[in-house]
Design a protein that fits this description.
The chain has a single domain, classed as Alpha/Beta hydrolase fold, catalytic domain (Rossmann fold, 3-Layer(aba) Sandwich). 35% of the residues lie in helices and 21% in strands. A 9-stranded mixed sheet has the order 1-2-3-5-4-8-9-10-11, sandwiched between helices. Strands 6-7 form a two-stranded antiparallel sheet. Strand 10, helix 9 and strand 11 form a beta-alpha-beta unit. The longest helix is centred in the first third of the chain and has 17 residues. It is globular. The relative contact order is 0.14. About 2% of the residues have low confidence.
């Protein structure tokens, strides 16, 4: 049996994959509608902050939503925020007050201004990671990232945005995908990335632990695949390798901020340290004592300083 990392893509294959996602997003017939205020919803409503929901539509990519907050000065950098695996919507008025535009992008239509689209949920979980495995990378995160990439390209075209000053950030899945997006935009001028307790990092190590934490979302479908289609297991590991932030370390040449929780069993610190050790450029790693897996309060303070330095 081959070791999982032996199935991982080469650096050149990761480069080509990122370029394919970027080309797909650039070719999309994207329309973006700034929506009127929706009735407040306790799950996803945003109050006490200026901003508008955005509906993104594309015949090629599908439909999804975001939340756009314009900077008060009328023109400034833009920070792209992406959600955790719960697909929660987020607003960041403190970053707007710092002079940034902020676009939260919520791919695959899992979250809408009026609530979660439960028709897209499978059991208790969203299916993006299992879909990545079962489709051998033809669906799942490749679609998620293409939508987020297209929304980023839209943001960079807005009059309120200085298009050569942008960065990505997020927590958990949002941390991992912010790094994947920064990798995709490496040659497009991305200034920085900030990833809080990032998921999608070092699958092989995390899934090999007795307590695989959040990585059970991958381990369970991989075990099912091994029973039903054992010949596809190497291709499934390659698909996971394409969305493993470790595979993108050579592309993460922009300043990268990482945080980890010392008590985090969902995204173990060892996986995040493994990524930190591979980063080739300016980098920061902060491990928070007595911190489990959560949106960590210190992260936002660290990220604000990081963006002031590099964005």
């Amino acid at each position: 049996m081959r070791e999982p990392v032996e199935c991982y893509p080469t650096a050149a294959e990761v480069d080509a994959w990122c370029e394919d996602i970027l080309r797909r997003a650039q070719a999309a017939d994207l329309s973006a509608e700034l929506m009127e205020d929706e009735p407040w919803d306790f799950r996803l409503g945003v109050r006490h902050t200026q901003g508008r929901y955005v509906r993104f539509r594309s015949q090629i990519l599908g439909e999804w939503h975001g939340f756009h907050q314009a900077c008060p000065s009328g023109r400034g950098p833009v920070l792209i925020h992406v959600p955790g695996y719960g697909a929660e919507m987020s607003a960041h008025p403190e970053l707007v007050s710092d002079g940034y535009n902020v676009l939260h992008v919520n791919p695959l239509g899992y979250a809408t201004p009026s609530g979660a689209d439960e028709t897209k949920r499978e059991g208790e979980m969203w299916p993006v990671l299992p879909d990545t495995i079962h489709s051998l990378g033809r669906e799942g995160y490749v679609d998620w990232l293409a939508q987020a990439t297209a929304a980023t390209l839209w943001a960079l075209r807005q009059e309120c945005v200085e298009p050569d000053r942008f960065a990505f950030f997020g927590t958990s899945q949002g941390g991992g995908t912010s790094l994947l997006l920064a990798s995709t935009f490496r040659d497009r001028g991305v200034r920085a990335a900030a990833a809080d307790v990032p998921f999608l990092t070092d699958f092989s190590t995390a899934m090999g632990l007795e307590n695989s934490g959040a990585y059970w979302i991958a381990r369970t479908p991989m075990e099912r695949l091994a029973g039903e289609r054992p010949g596809d297991v190497p291709a499934a590991w390659r698909a996971l390798g394409l969305v493993d932030t470790l595979s993108h370390a050579h592309r993460l040449t922009m300043p990268v901020l990482l945080t980890a929780g010392a008590l985090d069993e969902a995204c173990p610190p060892a996986t995040i340290r493994a990524l930190f050790d591979k980063l080739p450029g300016t980098r920061s790693y902060t491990e928070l004592a007595r911190q489990g897996h959560a949106y960590t309060t210190p992260f936002l303070h660290l990220a604000r300083a990081w963006f002031r330095l590099y964005v």
